[in-house]
Each structure stands twice: as structure tokens, then as C-alpha cells.
């Protein structure tokens, strides 16, 4: 897969003195195959390779960077660009209710995403949210939205099989206006494949509602097919953004790469689990790190070995090698180490994507302040809790939150993200991380 291939590329280039036409060509061949294997559309790949080549050849390898790192840096920046650069949130700037129309194939995750985003808007932005289903072909689909809306704590506007989608939408809009809702989600019927009746229906809904957000929901696991679907919906509707679901089940990222390229529309959210909190704002930069796999953890360790605290760095490498025992104590040490190495931004650049994400989410910003908050939370834990985070249940969470002066949710977020990181660490240790570490140190 893409992660492994690019990992191999980094390894091959490590130890080479300079970039030559030859080794760039080798690397580009690997990247090209990796992207094709990850199901990225061919024109996207061609474009991408051309850009990386141009940038890489013009690039001076400076300072402490190895040529491999420099090239991976270029690939990372270009991947980020390809996925749209900056993160863009939901646009609710309109006369309320802000209407959000959900479109996509059956099973893409429209209904689930409706509830996830509703919960998100309610909890984070204190919005009053109404959801309605125009999926009149499957009574179970309406029931499903009702159930997940209740779970999400948002209001559900009832509809029934056999009613006309346009009539349902109009009634829901009327209700939303009368009761001063901030946001109205309109969930729609999908089909198993692109189908002209479905397109006509969603177009009609769009024309009627004139939504401020028209979100195309697509299953990341569809790979190349996601691209074709995205193209069809983008031609039929003035989409404002894309939600890529089931990224938890797809490590390849191919769909993320090409959907943006094909539609020109921003990827706004990523679905990362079946549960209603399994959603994240889509950050192209983080996705690029994820596609590249390990961030530059090797660079990080190297730097630690060169400059700061040999023993601790060694210990870290040992733990990584063994693939077990990576706990919040280690994470805390890492933060302390990296502080010494020159602050937050250089630190985040070098951390594996999952770490960076954890730091960003726990603090909400890429700043030393964010790290301070994480450190504060971890400091409020006992050593026992740090080495066995699964011990931390509700009452401990409250104590820790109070100790760190943060909300319990922030502790939860840190723990969730940490759990994810641990999983990634385990995968690394199974899939060659140990080998890479040995190679690097030799
Ligand atoms: P719809 O037909 O487009 O409304 O799709 P649903 O919302 O009913 O979702 C289809 C299936 O995908 C359900 O089983 C969801 O639980 C699942 N699902 C949706 N989003 C995600 C996600 O981000 N991750 C995972 N693992 N499953 C998801
Ligand atoms: Mg549905």
C-alpha cells in the first residue's frame, strides 16, 4: 500500500548523499505506482508526479535534512496541496435555518453523517438542529434517521414512506422557520449506482431548498469508484463540499486524493467510525501525513539522539521496537524532549500524523499552548493511570479534568486519540517499524 511503499522510498533514499536525476526517477516511479495502487485516478497521478518532479529538482537539500527527507517533504507538501491546502469548515452564514443537503449513493453514510454533524453543531456551536429524511423508498431509512437523531440530541422531523420528497422538504423547512431552528439537515435517498431518477430527485430538492451547504457523502473504501460517483454528482449539483466516510476502514487514502482533484470541491469532513463522534474536520495536511504513514518519526528520533537526551531516546526506540508498552508516560516524555528541541511547530512537523492530530485536537490549535494543555492533563494523572489509561473511568476523568483546569471532554478527546495512536504504534511494530529503526541506527 501507499504507506508501505513511501516508507520504503524513504528508506532507500536515506543515506544517499545527494539527489540525482536517477534517484529522483526511482522515487517517482515508486510514488507513481503507490498512488495507482491506492486507486488514485491516472490523470491525477500524472499531474502529481510532474509537480513533485519539478519541485524536487529545484530543491536544495539544506541543513540537517537528508535527501530522502527533503523529497518526502516535497511529496508531503504536494499531497497537501492536492487535497486542497487549508481545512474549510461548514458555512452557515445565511438567514437561518441554514439548510444542509446531503447527497450520495446508498450506504455512503449520509444518514450517519447527518447525525454526526448535527451533534457536532449542537455541541460545539450550540446550534438548534433539525433533521428530516426524504428517503421515502425505504421506511427503515426514516426510522434510522429518527434513531440517530435522538442519539445525537437533535430534533427529528417525521416523514413517511410514499410521501413526495419535495413536499417533505418543504414541510420541514416551514417547521424549521416557525420554530427558529439554526440548521436544517435534509437527508436524501441514495441508490446503489448513479441513476437518472435519483439525480432528478436530488436536483429538484436542491432547486427547491437552495441549500447553503450541499454535501456529497462518499465512502472512502470505494477507491476509484468514488471518483466516478463524485464526478456524476458534481455535474448534477452545485456541491459545496465533500464528506469522506469510513476512513477508519481505508488506510490508502486514494479517494481523498482524487475526489478533490476531480470535483474541485473541498473535502470538509472525514468519517472515522460508526459512532456519532466518529467525525473530524478534514485537514489536508494531516491527511497527507497519514498517507505518508509515519510522519517523520525517524527524523525525530535521529534528532533526539543527536541533541537532547540519549537515554530517553534510546528507551523510546526500544519501546517502539518491541511494539508494546507505549503509554502516556512516554508521550509526556516525548513532549518534554521536543520542547527542548525547539518548540511546537518543528515538533508537529516531525511527529507521526496521529500524534500531531492528538496534539491539535486536544488543544484545538497548533500552538505551544495546546501542548501545554496536553501536558497539563497528563500531569494530572497518576503514574499508574498514565501507564494504564484504560483505568481512567468517569470519576478519575473528573478529577483529572479538574486538576488540569479543563473540561472532561478534553480529557476524553486526549484518551481517544491516545488509543488511536497506540493502535498505530502496534501496526508499525508489526509492519516493519522495528526493522526500519534498526536500519536507521546501524
Ligand atoms: P446512507 O445510506 O448513505 O444513509 O448510509 P448510512 O448512514 O446508513 O451508513 C451506511 C453504513 O455505513 C452504516 O452501517 C454506518 O454505520 C456505516 N458508516 C457510516 N459512516 C461511517 C464511518 O465513518 N466509519 C464506519 N466504520 N462506518 C460508517
Ligand atoms: Mg440513509
Automatic annotation (TrEMBL):
Top-rank taxon, per record: Bacteria
Catalytic activity: GTP + H2O = GDP + phosphate + H(+)
Enzyme class: hydrolase
Alphabetical GO biological process terms: SRP-dependent cotranslational protein targeting to membrane
Transmembrane portions of the chain: none
GO molecular function: 7S RNA binding; GTP binding; GTPase activity
Alphabetical list of InterPro entries matching this protein: AAA+_ATPase (IPR003593), P-loop_NTPase (IPR027417), Signal_recog_part_SRP54_M_sf (IPR036891), Signal_recog_particl_SRP54_hlx (IPR013822), Signal_recog_particle_SRP54_M (IPR004125), SRP (IPR004780), SRP54 (IPR022941), SRP54_GTPase_dom (IPR000897)
Subcellular localization(s) per the UniProt record: Cytoplasm
EC number per UniProt: 3.6.5.4
Domain SRP54-type proteins GTP-binding: 266-279
Annotated GTP binding sites: 104-111, 187-191, 245-248
Keyword Phosphoprotein: no
Keyword RNA-binding among record annotations: yes
SUPFAM superfamilies assigned: P-loop containing nucleoside triphosphate hydrolases (SSF52540), Signal peptide-binding domain (SSF47446)
GO cellular component labels: signal recognition particle
UniProt keyword annotations, A-Z: Cytoplasm, GTP-binding, Hydrolase, Nucleotide-binding, Ribonucleoprotein, RNA-binding, Signal recognition particle
Oligomer and partners: Part of the signal recognition particle protein translocation system, which is composed of SRP and FtsY. SRP is a ribonucleoprotein composed of Ffh and a 4.5S RNA molecule.
Domain notes: Composed of three domains: the N-terminal N domain, which is responsible for interactions with the ribosome, the central G domain, which binds GTP, and the C-terminal M domain, which binds the RNA and the signal sequence of the RNC.
Protein family membership: Belongs to the GTP-binding SRP family. SRP54 subfamily.
Physiological role: Involved in targeting and insertion of nascent membrane proteins into the cytoplasmic membrane. Binds to the hydrophobic signal sequence of the ribosome-nascent chain (RNC) as it emerges from the ribosomes. The SRP-RNC complex is then targeted to the cytoplasmic membrane where it interacts with the SRP receptor FtsY. Interaction with FtsY leads to the transfer of the RNC complex to the Sec translocase for insertion into the membrane, the hydrolysis of GTP by both Ffh and FtsY, and the dissociation of the SRP-FtsY complex into the individual components.
PANTHER family noted in UniProt: SIGNAL RECOGNITION PARTICLE 54K PROTEIN SRP54, SIGNAL RECOGNITION PARTICLE SUBUNIT SRP54
NCBIfam families: ffh
Record's protein name: Signal recognition particle protein
